Structures
1.
Amino acid sequence: MTVRLRAHHLLCMLTFVGEGYTPAFIANYRRIAERLTAGEEIELVSGPDDICAPLLDEKEPHCFRDSVIARDAAALADVATLLGEKIESGSVLVPDAGLLARLRQNFASGDIRYACRGCEWKELCSRIAASNFKGILIGSS
Ligand code: SF4
C-alpha cells in the first residue's frame, strides 16, 4: 500500500499535531500519520488525496478549489528544487527520517513555504516549526 498525497500535503504532514477541520478528518489523518511513521511510501497524486477523503462528502469541498490546486503546484516546485529531482503525479517518495528532517529544516527556514501563503493554518504551522516541531505525529517515534 502507498499513502496517496497531493503535493502541498508534503508540507502539511510536517506539522501535523492532531489538529484539523473535523473529528473524522483528524481521525483519518492520525491513521495516515501512523502509516507514514511506519515508513509506508508516499505516492504523489493530483487533486484530493487520502488526507482529503473525509471532507469530500461536503457540499462544496475546498479540496477542489483553484487556490488549493495552486498550493499543490507551489509545493511541488519547492520540494522538487529542494530534492534536486523532478517529481510529479505518480512519483513515489519514502518518508524516512532523512527526508522528513530535510523537509522540516527547509520548512522552518521558510525555503519551501511559498505554498503556505494565505493558508488559514499558517500561524499554527509556523509556531510548530519555531518550537522545533514539538508534538508532531509523523516521524516522531
Ligand atoms: S500553512 Fe497550510 S499549507 Fe502550509 S503546511 Fe500548514 S496547513 Fe499546510
2.
Amino acid sequence: MLSFDVVIIGAGAAGLMAAIEAGKRKRSVLLLDHAKAAGEKIRISGGGRCNFTNLHTAPANFLSQNPRFCVSALKRYTQRDFIALIEAHGIAYHEKTLGQLFCDGSSKQIISLLLQECRKAGVVLWTGAKVGKVQKHNGGFSVAIERDGERDKATCGSLVVATGGPSIPKMGATGFGYDLARAFDLIVVPPLPALVPLTFDEATLAKLKHLAGVSLNAVVTCGKTRFAEALLFTHRGLSGPVILQISSYWREGEEIGVNLLPDDDVFALLKQARSARPRQELKSILSELLPRRLALHIVEDLSASSNLGALGRIADLSDKKLRRIAAAINDWRILPKGTEGFRTAEVTLGGVDTDELSSKTFEAKKVPGLYFIGEVVDVTGHLGGYNFQWAWASGYAAGQYV
Ligand SMILES: Cc1cc2nc3c(=O)[nH]c(=O)nc-3n(C[C@H](O)[C@H](O)[C@H](O)COP(=O)(O)OP(=O)(O)OC[C@H]3O[C@@H](n4cnc5c(N)ncnc54)[C@H](O)[C@@H]3O)c2cc1C
C-alpha cells in the first residue's frame, strides 16, 4: 500500500498540469494513466503541431449548461500564462490563423515540457496503469491499481479525475470519469460528440459524394449560431473547421444553412453577368466564383431536381430563376443525418455537471477531496486551441487546492 497526498487519474493535458502545480506546492503526487505514454491526445493534436492555446480565449468560446462556470479558472490561468511557459522552455511557435497558436516543430515538445516540469516538481508518473476500484473512507480515498501484472493500492487525501471524454476510444479515451462521478451520486450531463464531421442520408450522399475533396470558405449557421471558416465535402458528408464548429451546436433533426460564397451577393453578380456577357453559359460564370466541380454540380442539380428547366446561357434566365440559383449558393439549406460520432470527434460535449463542482477549486461539493478537471467536466471549447486552454486552466486551478 502506497500513500500520497494526491492521486491524479489521467495524464493528459489537465492531469499533467494539476500534477505540476500540486507538486510545486510540495504535495506528494501520483499521476496514473492506463495508456503506454502520457499526453497521447497532445501528441496527435493540431496535425502533430498542437494548437496549444488561442490568443483570444474568452468565456464566449466555451459551451456548458452554466456558461459562467469557466470564467474564474480562465482568469486565473490565461493564454498568456501558458505562452510564458512555452517561451521559458524555448519552444518556437506561430499564429496560424484566428489567434490559434501552434508549435513550429512538434507537439512532442509540449509533452516533454510537461514531463520535465513534472520531474522538477517530484511527481511520480505511472503509465500503463490500470485503475480498478476507487473507495472513499475517512480522510481520503483508496485506488486499486494494476501495473506490469502486479496489483497495488494507493491511498490519498485528494483524488483528481482527469480522464477526459470518450472521443477517439482508440487513443485510450473512456467514460471512466462519468462512471466514477455517478458512483459518487454526481450528475453527468449526457455526453455528445462535438467538433465532429456531419453525415448525410443515403439519398443526399448519392448526389453529393462525387464532391468529396472539394473545399472552400463558407459561413455556416445553425439557429442563431454562425461560423465562418473552411468547409470540406467528404465521402460521408461535410467536414472542415466551419462544420466542426457548428457540430457543437447542431442537434439531430435541425437544418443548417450554408453560404458557399459569403463575400458575394450572388443574385447581384448574376444580374451583372447577364448584362455584361449574356451569351455566356451559367456553368462557366459559376465556375469563376466556385470550385468548378461544385459549380457544375449546382447547375446540374438545379436543372434536374427543381422546375427550373435547362440552365444554359445566362441571357435566357429570368430574375426568378437567378434568385433560385443565388439562394442555392448564398443560402444552401441542408438537413444532416447525424455526426461521425465519438470515433472521430475531437471533444465531448457534456460531462460532470458544473453545479456539482466549485468553479474555484474544482472539488465536488458533495464529496470533499474529489476533484474533476479538463474535458470530463461539462465545459467544451470551440475549435482553435480553446480546449487545451481549458485543460491547462482547470488543471492549474485544482493544483492550487488538492
Ligand atoms: C485528434 C484530436 C486533435 C485535437 N487537437 C486539439 C488542438 O489542436 N487544440 C486543442 O485545444 N484541443 C485539441 N483537441 C482536444 C484536446 O485534445 C482535449 O480537449 C484535451 O486533450 C482534454 O484534456 P484532458 O486532460 O481533459 O483529457 P485527455 O487529454 O483526453 O487525457 C485523459 C487521459 O486520461 C487517460 N484515461 C482515460 N481513462 C482512463 C482510465 N480508466 N484509467 C487511467 N487513465 C485513463 C487517457 O489515457 C488520457 O491520457 C484535439 C482532440 C483530438 C481527439
